[in-house]
Amino acid sequence: MDTxxxxxxxxxxRWHPLRREWVVYSAHRNxxxxxxxxxxxxxxxxxxxxxxxxxxxxxRVSGAVNPDYQDVFIFDxxxxxxxxxxxxxxxxxxxxxxxxxxxxxxxxxxxxxxxxPRHDVSLSELDVPRIARIFRALREEMVFFRNHPxxxxxxxxxxxxxxxxxxxxxxxxxxxxxxxxxxxxRREMEAMHxxxxxxxxNIFSDIIQAELKDRKRIIWESETAVVFIPFFARFAYEAWIxxxxxxxxxxxxxxxxxxxxxxxxxxxxxxxxxLFRSSFPYIMAMAQAPVDGGxxxxxxxxxxxxxxxxxxxxxxxxxxPETGADTFMADTIPEDKALExxxxxx
Length: 346
Ligand SMILES: [Zn+2]
Hints:
Blueprint: E1 11-16, E2 21-26, E3 73-76, E4 95-96, E5 101-102, E6 108-114, H1 128-146, E7 153-160, E8 172-178, H2 183-199, H3 203-214, E9 218-221, E10 225-228, E11 239-243, H4 255-276, E12 282-287, E13 302-306, E14 309-311, E15 314-315, H5 320-325, E16 329-330, H6 334-343
Parallel strand pairs: 2-16
Antiparallel strand pairs: 1-2, 3-6, 4-5, 6-8, 7-8, 7-12, 9-10, 10-11, 11-13, 12-13, 14-15
Bound molecules: zinc ion.
């Protein structure tokens, strides 16, 4: 029996400093490079779809009619997950079994953000000024939520592609503004506090510095922004975008920094599309500090892309370890995936 064979490739655990947990990598299980046999998706969509509830002038399920918008269009979700008119929970049923089981109103605001009136474009196909306009509109939304007495935290996210459950290709993202903190940001802030106590430094700055020093996972960099697959990536093509200067949320970012973020977004999504020769699916979440009036100057906002594909047509299933035990196991190594994206000319 050849005992050396099983140990070729990379096989190790890496510490995820912001989640404070291990990620397991075993690249020997899947070290054959994939070839590019993927078919280029022929786009049959047109710029307007009469059946699309996001296209200009169309009727939505609520009975509202979309305006003939030319730019970014934002409206309250017709099927809100959190809402200001969510049913109140009566005091007598808000707590049971001596506080073990609690319930509360699903208070918040759910919004949909249409990037562009055209039905058949994706964000990677828009130019930088247009993407920057989207980010500026999101910045305005953040100012609104910061000033809203019921909102404490805002999640801006984009689900892209049928593989992540989005059947409508019209380019859009969503906003969930809530009266509670989202787990990702809550966990990152806990890690940030622990790190500051132990090392007297900022965990986000330290990660950015480490990536810039290692260089091998950097996908793209400008004066104001940096894109990399982190050392501790959980998904094969997971990428993070940071503005280089620390901002807790979009609110304090200058137009120039917003432009840098837009350019980073465009470069990354074009590299994704180019590498997979198709419109690459992903889940993008914008990690921002809460907007509940607290002090969050140490928090460094960032964008996290979690693509479900490991190869064209091959999905990473969140199975036993991930769903069953909340622990990620990857069969790719971040440096290898970063190299593929680095080499992808756009
Ligand atoms: Zn549409």
